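Task 17 of the worksheet. Students: predict the tertiary structure of the chain below and write it out as structure tokens. Keep your answer in the requested format; marks are given for formatting as well as content.
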Amino acid sequence: MDDEHFMRLALKEAVKAMETGEVPVGAIITVGTQIIARGSNMVEKLKDPTAHAEMIALTSAFNQLGAKYLPDATIYITVEPCLMCAGAIYWSKISRIVWGAADEKNGFARLTGPHNPFHPKALIQKGILAEESAVLMRNFFGSRR
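Model answer:
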């Protein structure tokens, strides 16, 4: 099992979100090769602008492990996290962050520039299945225009 394997599972979460009218973002959190949490956007369903896939997955992981930090975990996200989610990931002390497509409009980098908002020890991997993630976003927003 590698990054592409887990990103494909995150993409399944994103499709689940899209099928319910949510922006298609999915997240998976692992410790080693074990999945400990999943999340998909639930903003519309919960009527909560903070119910992003990352936040749903993080809360689930904290509950699953009974801990407020995830130093041995990896989070896989289909799209670059927004600033809010980047902050939550920072506070989780997660050790590895992997995402697919860049988000030039709402991603954290738009506001932070070259500054890394994540924990200084966190490893970052970008662009895993980026095209597949970007296609989901384009299709979703294209169907709404």
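Marker's comment: The longest strand covers residues 34-40. DSSP finds six helices and five strands in the chain.
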